[in-house]
Amino acid sequence: MLGQQFFRVKADFSIKETLANGKSSLTMGTIYFDRSAKRLIYQIKFPEKETLILTDSNYFRVKDGKIIEQKPAMNLLNFSIYNLALASKMSNFGLENNPAFKLVDVVKEDSLIISTWRPTIEKLKELTGDVLISQKKKQLFGLVFFDKDGKLLSKQFFEGYQNYKGLEFPGSITQINYIGGKEFYKITTFKNVVVNDINENSIYNYSLPAQ
Question: The pTM is what?
């Protein structure tokens, strides 16, 4: 099935996260993503009901029918796993045809193929360093991000893939952020994945409340 035939994905999610204060948090809800509308909707059900909206340029937080937070979010949508999965570009995190990065190394370690990608644009080089991508059975398995000085920033692991009408989508993502010499974990799990849903148009095309 061709990538352009996938245009929507919906999934129930839960996020368990360790916080800087030593405590942990749990967030649960449903995500809705439409490639054509370029809109990612998080309908949070726990711990409090609210809606997060990510467009190709902005992030909005809506609660009780009012926008309570808004900030720029340039290009985050393009690199969301939802967009990459629907575009059939998830296996290399969308970097293969991205002029902002170049492939500089490929090695094989056991069952993994590990490629190293380096930023090519000067402004980007000031913000980030190499990105390592590992693939297992031609699926994205791991991501490792470094800063411009080669310091480890974060790792992500994608596991439990299932096939939904031809769409390969992970069951869980484990992210480890390295801050101040400590590891902080964020584990996202997905279930009830629905591809090309045509029933909940009002949610996929969510209308922001007037400000």
Answer: 0.91
**Domain 3-204: CATH class, spelled out:** mainly beta
Torsion angle of C-alpha atoms 186, 47, 52, 101, degrees rounded to 10: 0
- HEC string for 41-109: EEEEEECCCEEEEECCCEEEEEECCEEEEEEECCCCCCCCHHHHHHCCCHHHCCCCCCCCEEEEEEEEE
* Domain segments of the chain as ranges: 3-204
**Are 59 and 51 in contact, with CB atoms under 8 Å apart?**
no
Question: Nearest CA to 119 among 154, 153, 147?
Answer: 147
pLDDT (tens place) for every residue of the chain, 211 residues total: 444 489 999 999 999 999 878 889 999 999 999 999 899 999 999 999 999 999 989 999 999 999 999 999 877 898 899 999 999 999 999 999 899 999 999 999 999 999 999 999 998 899 899 999 999 999 999 999 999 999 999 999 999 999 999 999 999 999 999 998 899 999 999 999 999 999 999 999 898 887 6
Question: 90 — alpha (psi -120 to 50), left (phi > 0) or beta?
Answer: alpha
